[in-house]
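Re-run with default settings, no changes from the original entry. Doing this only to confirm the output is reproducible before filing.
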Amino acid sequence: MNMQRVCVFLGANPGLDPAYAEAARAMARELVSRGIGLVYGGSAVGLMKVLADAVMAGGGEALGVIPQALYDKEIGHTGITRLEVVSSMHERKARMAELADGFVALPGGIGTLEEIFEVFTWGQLGFHAKPCGLLDVKGYYGGLCAFLDHVRDQGFLKNDHRGMLLCDPDPARLLERMARFEPPRVAKWVERPNQL
């Protein structure tokens, strides 16, 4: 798969461990070195700022998409390649999905989890065939990955679908795995949802 842009979901807070910011910078270096543009939530705070600043400092492309309400609250990042201000969270997520060829979640809170699980679900349903991954910084997502294995083992998630959400602690390896990703065969819906 040729990934020209990757959407990264991550915290609007820095988190307590400095390793999270370092992981954001490491992901930025990997994206820039591979000529992959960044799509992200457009904020100039927390890990989101760290990632975008590192991409820009490395000479890469950073595209941000932020709803007006969060632009006003979190301060939209005006020092990136392009910042799009949209009217709603739904429009934001749809636009980010449209711009990206793959999705990665770094450490973050409920919003980060909601975003990666939404695109993971869309892939499971056959609405897209883009790879999804978790950057497992210092075991941040280890419990979540184990839970998804449990969901599969209990018959609520097919094994092929479980394999659609990659998990790796190394950003270079995660991006390489995403580039080799081949989605399982799933039934295509006759009509795609409007938000996609």
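The chain has a mean pLDDT of 93. Strands lie at 5-9, 37-40, 62-67, 82-86, 103-105, 132-135, 165-168.
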